[in-house]
Amino acid sequence: MSAPVVDRFMQLAPIDNPSGGEAVIRDFLASSLAKLGLDNQVIDAAGNLLVRVPGDPNKPTLLLSAHMDSVPPCHGIQPVQDASEGRPVIRSAGKTILGADDKSGMAVILEVMSRLKHPNSENNPPSNHPLELLFSTQEEVGLLGAKALDRKQLKADYAYVLDGEGSAGDIFTAGPTQYHFVIECHGRAAHAGIAPEAGLSAIQMMAAVCARLPQGRLGPELTANVGTIEGGKATNVVADFAKIRGEIRTHHEAPLKALLQEYQEICQQVNANFPGGSITFEPLRRYDAFSVSGDHVSVQKAQAVFEANHIPNSLLSMNIGSDAHILNQFGIPAVVLGMGFHFSHSLGEFIYVDELQQITEVVSQLVRGD
Ligand SMILES: [Zn+2]
Q1: How far is ligand 1, taken at its centre, from the CA of residue 23, in Å?
Q2: pLDDT digit string (tens) for 194-207?
Q3: DSSP state of 152
Q4: Ligand 1 mean position, distance from CA 29 (Å)
Q5: pLDDT digit string (tens) for 303-333?
Q6: How far apart are the CA of 266 and the centre of ligand 1, in A?
Q7: I need a surface site. Which of 73, 109, 253, 335 has the fewest CB within 10 A?
């Protein structure tokens, strides 16, 4: 017989949940929680599901969150259990991702709620922390659900985002600022065979820029990447347009500012070598870095519970975006907990069964406040 949280995960895994198509999984969560008596539920305009759970009003309100969407390919996921990693894991049958990112978070919240007793009587009030359960939409396509939240709806004092790639015991207390950038090169079209000298190749301009942009791991907490290039219409036309898209991630403002300045200068310098053409650089800030102090009660409590359960823990910073970014921007200290899944966003994604059970136990103790 498998653990209840594993059964819950196996039930959630086959539900299709592409970004923007979270309605089915949201209905499943909403009705599962309603059956537990948790019917104080709000679905906002962005499709986020927020569920309030009564608790001891003398305790701080905790927010638990998981995002409802998965990256493609996530249709028709067939979860299978095996021991291919040396101990029991769940992975997909191979044609899709597994979607433990973030069905592990949903499964843990459902299981933790089913363990809570809700006496709901004045003589016998619940002793757990008051809770807000946030199931967000479109996290994978730019934290869109979280960004659209009405801040006033949230009363939480601090939050645990159940969405971390890594081990049960990993506490991610910091995340980077992310920028997207677009570089557009405008040249001049001409017939490539009849009058090439009348043209100005935007592709050559783009290549000259690309060759000079610093990319890859540029510092301990600074990365940059050109992710896509496009341009040109036909082999017999000198290309009049080309476009570069990329991203920069950093935990610190100073090197970020310096890099943006350098990118801008490179574009100007290359442009000077292509008279008559134009190169524009457009950076777009997507979200701000966050950092929660190791002294914060959310971190201290999590560490204490991990230690009480003999689970090694570590404070880490991550280099990806998460709903924790937005919650921290709202002024709600939020850390991300490792869920035991690895290789997310790939067909090789898997989750360790024992770690899924461990994190369930830890979250269960965190919400009881014992
Ligand atoms: Zn995720």
Answers
A1: 18
A2: 999 999 999 999 99
A3: G
A4: 17
A5: 999 999 999 999 999 989 999 999 999 999 9
A6: 35
A7: 253
Query: From CA 345, how far away is CA 325, in angstroms rounded?
Result: 20
Q: What percent of the chain has pLDDT over 90?
A: 94
Rounded distance from Cα 258 to ligand 1 centre (Å)? 30
Contacts of 302 (CB under 8 A, 6+ apart): 160, 171, 313, 335, 337, 362, 366
Do 17 and 68 contact (CB within 8 A), yes or no? Answer: yes
138 within 8 A of 19, measured Cβ to Cβ: yes
> What are residue 41's DSSP bridge partners?
51
CA of 146 to the centre of ligand 1 (A): 13
Residue 102 CA to ligand 1 center (angstroms) comes to: 5
Kindly give the distance from the C-alpha atom of residue 234 to the centroid of ligand 1, in angstroms, as a whole number.
40
Tell me if domain 4-175+289-368 and domain 177-287 are identical in fold.
no
For residue 287, give both structure tokens: 């979200």
The full set of domain ranges for the chain reads 4-175+289-368, 177-287
Residues 6+ positions from 31 with CB-CB distance below 8 Å? none
pLDDT per position as a tens digit, 57-69? 999 999 999 999 9
Q: What is the pTM of this model?
A: 0.89
Burial class (CB in 10 A: 0-12, 13-18, 19+), 135: buried
Per-residue confidence at 370, pLDDT binned at 50, 70, 90?
low
pLDDT digits over 142-152, tens only? 999 999 999 99
Distance 297 CA to ligand 1 centre (A): 24
The CATH code belonging to domain 4-175+289-368 is 3.40.630.10
Fold held by 177-287 = Alpha-Beta Plaits (3.30.70)
The answer to whether 321 and 147 have CB atoms below 8 angstroms apart is no
